[in-house]
Amino acid sequence: MIEKVFELIKEEEKRQRDTLMLIPSENYASKEVREAVGSVLMNKYSEGYPGKRYYQGNKIIDEIEALGVERAKKLFNVPYANVQPYSGSPANSEVLFALVTCGGNKMPKDKIMGMQLSAGGHLTHGHSDITFSGKYFKSVQFGLDEKGFLDYRLIEYLAKKEKPKLMFIGTTAYPLAFNWKKFAEIADSIGAWLIADISHVVGLIIAGAYPSPIPYAHIVTTTTHKTLRGPRGAMILVTEKGIKRDHELPVKIDRSVFPGMQGGPHNNTTAGIAVALEEASKTSFKNYGKQVAKNAKILADELKRGGLKLVAEGTESHLMVVDFRQQELSGNVVAEALEVAGIVVNKNSVPNDHMPPFYPSGIRLGTPAVTTRGMKEKEMKQIARWIIKVIEHIEVYKLPRNEKARSTFMKAYKQKTAQDKFLLKVAQEVKDLCHKFPVP
Ligand SMILES: Cc1ncc(COP(=O)(O)O)c(C=O)c1O
């Protein structure tokens, strides 16, 4: 009998092959990256850093980690990189604990500033007291205007009034390009650290399809599994500007990662990151990053042409957020129907959403994964047509206003849509398209 887990992996392989992965934080890692991650490197303990380990037997691991660090430094043109963070959230916590004081040991909490979660910020950028970043630090958050645009004048006003010690700037859902120069001017004017979290857009930055914060931020953090197409992990980069302000930043970050927050590095992941960095240094990757942005623009334009309202009226990145408030539709209702049709997106809050995050008024979608499969303009137009048709098909289903009735409604709705002939027909068409674009 085949081990149940491998049966399930086969099923997941099929799902990833036969559907359109439009969740903007997802991607297909190459076979080489997956081979490194599944390798015997996972058997080894290596607490410490190359040349300074707490265990014997790390000669080869040292070479692998040093290679990863060198490749990161070269690709991003930075003087220092740490490739050990287990993932994006630990990386961000490591930066915070290295630079600002939390409320422990009777020390006063330092103030940090970031973008609201509902505006597209991340949980680790100071989101309320349900996260470490909102709980252990004083947190000031900024949002978007009614149309979904950043208001830099308001951010500047807030920063000057609140004087945070650190600004964590990055996004999971803001579709437009950041003005890093402006953020740096604001941070510099109050002497705050500027940390750029480029987890979502890193691949586009490498391709020159999105502005780079490297000249402006002191530290840059990024996950490695989104547009970079590596394994699940993260990196912390210190820029020239960061070193100029504090030449001890590399030591502070190293210590904050280990032993501050983590134990032994995941050497198999480190190797996967090193492989992904090499892949990302190729011209083919730059073409990929450019195509991701191009595809997103086409998809966004087509959705708008089909009558949908996009947050910030479009995209300058790999992602877009559709706002369904005018149709009084729930993101849950739309996302469920799209999944039955083989189009996988996620429900998402829209700026100033009156609905709670579990039943938000929008969906978020992006093009990194479908672009990895080789899809281009023609396919984006087809995908937009499917999305519009599916939305028209389910537009009559309105989430109850009564909060208690919502989960029963969604349960019945899911059962109904799972059998829906129209949605299943679209799913077959999607599958046919997917088969023309093999996954790595
Ligand atoms: C901007 C940003 N930062 C940090 C993270 C956290 O990464 P992880 O899920 O690997 O902890 C994410 C993940 O979605 C993100 O989008």
Characterise this structure:
The mean pLDDT is 97. Helix 6 runs parallel beside helix 7 (180-189). Strands 4-10-9-8-7-5-6 form a seven-stranded mixed beta sheet, sandwiched between helices. It has helices at 4-18, 31-37, 59-76, 88-99, 132-135, 152-162, 180-189, 202-207, 240-245, 249-261, 267-280, 283-305, 331-340, 368-372, 377-394, 406-418, 421-435; strands at residues 20-21, 48-49, 52-53, 80-82, 111-115, 138-142, 166-170, 193-197, 219-223, 234-238, 309-310, 319-323, 343-344, 346-348, 362-366. The longest helix has 23 residues, at 283-305. By secondary structure, it is α/β, with parallel strands linked by helices. The chain has two domains: 31-280, Aspartate Aminotransferase, domain 2, CATH 3.40.640; 283-436, Aspartate Aminotransferase, domain 1, CATH 3.90.1150.10. The structure holds pyridoxal-5'-phosphate.
